[in-house]
Fold this protein.
Amino acid sequence: MTQLDDAKGKVNSALSRLEKMVEQRLREETARADELATKLATLERQYEELKRVATDVETRLETAMTHIRGLLAAEQR
């Protein structure tokens, strides 16, 4: 084998290792992105549920306040 062939072999070997490292990193980052997307979807669902609960509580509070105002007005008559 000539020095040129030896150098080509080393370069090809290094490129192959680099390619495997890049592919592994890409797999890891893709898995991480998928995990983050799942967590984000969960948080968005929880946020929407909390918004619904808050709206329900606000509505009930307004109803209770209206009822209390009515009782106070009736009591003052």
